[in-house]
Each structure stands twice: as C-alpha cells, then as structure tokens.
C-alpha cells in the first residue's frame, strides 16, 4: 500500500537537515532527485504558511485516501457475489454495478436492443467531438461537410432509438431512459436554448418597445422561477390548460421547460457580450451598407460569442447537470435509472455504488466541456476584446 | 469640377437635436462632384454630427439631404440604399477585430454588393495595395499600428467604390508619428478625383488638398472659403481663436 501512495513520500523533504545551505550556492548537480527536491522547495515549502498548508493537505490525504481506497478497492466486492457477501466485506459492492449497469445506462429500454441506444450515444458523441475540432471549421468546404453530415446523422439516431425501419423493432419513447435520455434532453435543450437566447438578447436591446418589453419580461420571469417549478408546471399544469384532445408528449413538455428556462440565462450572458461591443462596430457595419441581420450575424455576434465562451459553457454545464431534475416528474434520466437501481430488491440497501457510477459519467462529460471551453478561450479569447 | 454640374450633395436647412441640445442648427451646403471639402471647428460645433447625418447613421430632425438628387431619408428607406455608396472613415478606425485585414475589406462587397469571392478578393488587394498595406492582408487588425489600421479602414471603404468619402477626424486618435502616413493616403485619394468630406484639424492637409474649408461653430456654418482666403484674412475672432488653439495644441 505505501508504494501506491506517493503523497507521503513527498511529505518527507522538510525533515532533511540542510535546505538552508542548499538554497544559497548555485546548483551544480541536476540529478532527478535534486530537481524534484528543488521543485518541492519552490512549490510546497516556499515559506512557513506554504509549508503548513502542504502539511495540512498531506494530513487530510492521509486521513481520507486510505479509507477511500479500502472502500473502493481493498474491501470491494466484484461479481460473482450477492448482497450478503458485499455486506460481509463492508466495501464497495461493484458486483451490483456489474449486474445493473446496463439498466442504469439505458433504463427500461428492452435489454435485447441495448446496442441501439449505445450505438446512438456513441455516434452522437463522435459527431459532437468531430464538430468541436477547430480545424473542422477552417475551410468553407469542411463547414459545408459538417452541416451536411448532421441532419442525416440525427435521422439515423432517431431511427436507431425508435426503430420501426429496416427490421428494427419499435421501441416507444416512454421506454427511453438513462444516458440517452439525459443526452437528448441536454443537447436538444442547449442547442435550442442557445438559438432562442440570441433572439431574446437581441430583442432585449431592440429599438421597438413592445419587443424589448416582452423579452425583458420573459427573461425576468424565467430567471425568477425555480427550474423544478417550471418542470412541474410543464408536466402537470400544462396538460390541464390544454383542450382534452390535445396531448403533448411528456418528454416534449420537459424539453420545452428546459429550453425556455436556460434560454433566459443564456440571453443574459449574450446581453453582457453585446454591451461590451463598442458602438463603433455597429456604426462601421451600418456605414458599409450591411443590413441589421448582416451586421448582427457577421460582425457583432461573432465577437460576442468569442467573448462569452466562459459564461456560456458555465451555463451549458449546469444545464447538462440540471437535466437530472426531470426525476421530479418521474422521467427516468440517468439519475432516475440510478435511483431505480437502488430499489432493486436483489441489491436492496445499496445507494453509493449507482450514484458513484453516474457521478463519474457526469464528471467526465462536464470536465470535457470545461476543458474544451479553456481550449476555445486560448484560441479565440483575446480577439474581439478591444477595438 | 465644373460649375454647371448639379452638386453631388445638397444639404438644406439641416437640423439635428439630441434632447434639448441643437447639434446642427440649420446647415446649407453644396458639395460638387470631385470636390474636397475640409470641415473644421471647435469641439461640439456639430461637425461629426454633420458627417453622421450625411450618410444617415444619425437620422436628421429637419431639413433635407440630397445625394445625387435622391433624398436621404430613413423613413423612405433610401438611407440604407445610399449608404452603400458613401464611404466612412472613423476616428477610432472601427475595424472588425475578429476578421483579418483582407476579410475586413471583402465582407461588405460580398454581402452588400454580392461580389464573388475572387472579385471581392481582387478588389480588396487592389485597395490595400493603394494604401500600401497589402503585405499585412492576412493579419488581424490588432496586430497593426494605429496608422496601419486607419489605412486599412480607408481601403475597406474604398472597396465599396463609393462616390463620396466621409472622414470623421481620421487622424485625431493617432500617435503623432503616424498621422503623416494616413494624410499621405488621403492626399493621394484627393488627387485621384474622389469627392471627399474631411472633418479634421490638420490644417496642413487642408492647405494641400482642400478646395474649400468650412468652419462650423455651435451647429452652424460660420464661414466657407478656399484655403488661401480662409488662412489669409481672419476677421472672425472665433476662427482666429480656433486656429491659434490648434497650432498651440
């Protein structure tokens, strides 16, 4: 165990007797050990407070990491096992995940057809990743290719999920759940909310009073209401207010609530960017004969979007995580299926494992988003900040 | 410049208010085809407002502006149409920072004049060549000095093949050592027969290139005269003070 546990090894250098002498003369020897010691002195033991902080962190790690490792690794139980064995060993019951992971990922989707949502999510992720590579946007040809690939791919994804074509059995949407549902809610929600937010932000600074007032009222209303309330209203109140013969699919109601809610937040981020654009940019675009929409889409918004990457991605991340709130309207997204797994009688009483599993999925997706946002900032962040 | 030809720009009784403030208090002005007009005056005299009204960036409150006989009017929808043929160079350059120098020059010709990519590119390079900055075409504007940026802004306006060029204090945001490179471009442009309205305090430029100098104060034209007469006899104390101020500053 000590070998797999490096932090304490780094914790030793303060015990060395001679750091003060070594700080003065120029270092001649540049061996691996010396370099590491120099690094440690500069970064971990630069002063009394720094040293104290380092020691505190090391103590915290010593206190928590072994217990965590015991639970997750040394006392953990893998299949084949049942809940009795897990309880006996006391650690993580990974056997439960080995048994239920497919149900957590795909929910009530028929098990024989699980390859379809798996393939759909994989295809979607692949296309998103490809589309996010900046080099794919460099030439007009590549941009056209991307735009041409998206619609048929979305159609293929829909066919994969729903079936009814090419011998694929139909799987009704009420059986969709888990990761595909989360991905659909989040990506459709973010995409449409983003488009709506541009309209709202432009409307908010429109010279037409009615448009401006409607946009302001909308944004303030949406920001003033908790998302849960909105979801409950969309799922309970909306059907009551509609004529009896009109029904909106529960998924669509939830999706609509997400779009409407996050569009308001994004609109405020866009508005912040719009206000940071110098008036001269509008004047220059107008003076050259560009129409309102031409100047917005070609001059103003490209600068705004570069500027608001950090706040926008922040909203994207929270939108992705907040899709889990559909659990309050009994939709089985990733959180819903994890919760369902906890009520599996075979594994009754286990909570941490399924939630740890979906946390890992959320963490990976959200970290990827924030990593990508930093990449974009490095690439575009400085342009458009001044004129 | 022939005296018989109708003026390119005819301004009659032009007024512009900002709230209670009368920025323009009745301007009458004719600008002939090919004429080089320098507009000067103390700050707050309304000269920038005049430039912004001449291409409809600011709608005017009273009076008329005729460009080639066509009334410039936001409500008639002619302002947008006429603006394409009026180039404007701003004090703060106002280049589009997210586009390269070349793209700055091709954007409007492609979107507004619907030129093909090659034609727009050719025209942009031609005008960048003319202002001596073709070698910087691939750069972003923020990589360029102020003088270079202003020359790009002039090239960008020229790419629209305007019949009138408005310059709104094109050198006043520049470091002194960069003023000359921009003025040189403007003088070359003036010699090529372009109709120009230059709002500037550069009296050297006015002497060298202007056909007429218009002096404004408090939203009115106080005096119009060719450079020789304007600089020669100065009875008006306001003009004397103005000239003393700018040579002192």
From TrEMBL, chain A:
Cited NCBIfam families: HEQRo_perm_3TM
Ranges for domain ABC transmembrane type-1: 179-369
Keywords, comma-separated and alphabetical: Cell membrane, Membrane, Transmembrane, Transmembrane helix, Transport
Keyword Amino-acid biosynthesis among UniProt keywords: no
Organism: Marinimicrococcus flavescens
GO annotation, cellular component aspect: ATP-binding cassette (ABC) transporter complex
Chain intervals for the UniProt region annotation (Disordered): 1-25
Residue intervals passing through the bilayer: 44-65, 118-138, 145-171, 183-203, 224-242, 248-267, 313-335, 347-372
Membrane topology (UniProt): Multi-pass membrane protein
Similarity section: Belongs to the binding-protein-dependent transport system permease family. HisMQ subfamily.
Cell location: Cell inner membrane; Cell membrane
PROSITE patterns linked: ABC_TM1
Pro residues bias (residue ranges): 1-23
Record GO biological process: amino acid transport
Gene Ontology molecular function terms on file: transmembrane transporter activity
UniProt cross-references to InterPro entries, sorted A to Z: AA_ABC_transptr_permease_3TM, ArtM/GltK/GlnP/TcyL/YhdX-like, MetI-like, MetI-like_sf
Name of protein: Amino acid ABC transporter permease
One Pfam short name: BPD_transp_1
Automatic annotation (TrEMBL), chain B:
Alphabetically ordered keywords of this record: ATP-binding, Nucleotide-binding, Transport
The ABC transporter domain, residue ranges: 9-243
A UniProt-annotated Pfam family: ABC_tran
GO molecular function: ABC-type amino acid transporter activity; ATP binding; ATP hydrolysis activity
Gene3D superfamilies, per the entry: P-loop containing nucleotide triphosphate hydrolases (3.40.50.300)
Keyword Nucleotide-binding appears in the UniProt entry: yes
Family: Belongs to the ABC transporter superfamily.
Protein name as annotated: Amino acid ABC transporter ATP-binding protein
């Amino acid at each position: 165990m000590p070998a797999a546990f490096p932090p304490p090894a780094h914790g030793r250098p303060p015990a060395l007797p001679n750091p003060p002498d070594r700080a003065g003369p120029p270092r001649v020897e540049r061996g691996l050990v010396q370099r590491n010691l120099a690094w440690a002195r500069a970064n971990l033991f630069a002063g009394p407070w720094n040293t104290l902080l380092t020691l505190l962190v090391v103590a915290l790690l010593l206190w928590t990491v072994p217990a965590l490792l015991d639970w997750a690794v040394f006392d953990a139980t893998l299949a084949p096992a049942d809940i009795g064995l897990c309880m006996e060993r006391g650690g993580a019951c990974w056997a439960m995940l080995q048994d239920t992971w497919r149900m957590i990922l795909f929910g009530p989707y028929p098990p024989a057809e699980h390859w379809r949502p798996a393939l759909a999510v994989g295809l979607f992720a692949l296309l998103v990743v490809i589309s996010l590579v900046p080099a794919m946007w460099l030439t007009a040809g590549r941009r056209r290719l991307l735009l041409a690939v998206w619609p048929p791919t979305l159609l293929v994804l829909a066919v994969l999920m729903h079936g009814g074509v090419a011998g694929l059995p139909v799987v009704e949407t009420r059986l969709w759940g888990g990761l595909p549902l989360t991905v659909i809610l989040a990506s459709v929600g973010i995409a449409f909310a983003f488009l709506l937010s541009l309209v709202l932000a432009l409307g908010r600074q429109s010279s037409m009073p009615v448009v401006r007032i409607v946009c302001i009222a909308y944004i303030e209303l949406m920001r003033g209401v908790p998302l849960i309330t909105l979801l409950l209203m969309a799922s309970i109140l909306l059907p009551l207010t509609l004529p009896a013969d009109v029904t909106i699919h529960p998924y669509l109601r939830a999706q609509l609530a997400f779009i409407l809610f996050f569009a308001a937040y994004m609109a405020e981020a866009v508005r912040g960017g719009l206000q940071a654009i110098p008036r001269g940019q509008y004047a220059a675009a107008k003076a050259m004969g560009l129409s309102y929409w031409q100047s917005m889409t070609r001059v103003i918004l490209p600068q705004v979007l570069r500027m608001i990457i950090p706040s926008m991605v922040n909203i994207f991340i929270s939108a992705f995580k907040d899709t889990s709130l559909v659990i309050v309207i009994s939709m089985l997204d990733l959180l819903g299926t994890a919760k369902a797994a906890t009520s599996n009688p075979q594994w009754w009483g286990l909570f941490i494992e399924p939630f740890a599993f979906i946390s890992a999925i959320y963490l990976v997706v959200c970290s990827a988003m924030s990593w990508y946002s930093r990449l974009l900032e490095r690439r575009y962040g400085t342009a458009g900040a001044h004129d | 410049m022939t005296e018989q030809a109708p003026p390119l720009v005819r301004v009659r009784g032009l007024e512009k208010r900002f709230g209670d403030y009368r920025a323009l208090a009745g301007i009458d002005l004719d600008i002939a085809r090919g004429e080089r007009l320098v507009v000067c005056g103390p700050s707050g005299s309304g000269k920038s407002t005049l430039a912004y009204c001449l291409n409809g960036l600011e709608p005017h409150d009273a009076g008329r502006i005729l460009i080639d006989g066509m009334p410039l009017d936001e409500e008639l929808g002619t302002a947008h149409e006429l603006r394409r043929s009026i180039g404007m160079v701003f004090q703060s350059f106002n280049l589009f920072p997210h586009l390269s120098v070349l793209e700055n020059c091709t954007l409007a010709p492609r979107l507004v004049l619907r030129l093909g990519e090659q034609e727009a590119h050719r025209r942009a390079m031609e005008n960048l060549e003319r202002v001596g900055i073709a070698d910087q075409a691939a750069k972003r504007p923020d990589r360029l000095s102020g003088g270079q940026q202003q020359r790009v802004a002039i090239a960008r306006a020229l790419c629209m093949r305007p019949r009138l060029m408005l310059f709104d204090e094109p050198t006043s945001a520049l470091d002194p050592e960069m003023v000359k490179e921009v003025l040189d471009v403007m003088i070359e442009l003036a010699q090529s027969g372009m109709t120009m309205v230059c709002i500037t305090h550069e009296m050297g430029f006015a002497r060298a290139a202007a056909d007429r100098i218009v002096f404004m104060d408090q939203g009115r034209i106080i005096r119009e005269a060719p450079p020789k007469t304007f600089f020669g006899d100065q009875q008006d104390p306001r003009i004397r003070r103005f000239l003393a101020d700018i040579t002192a500053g």
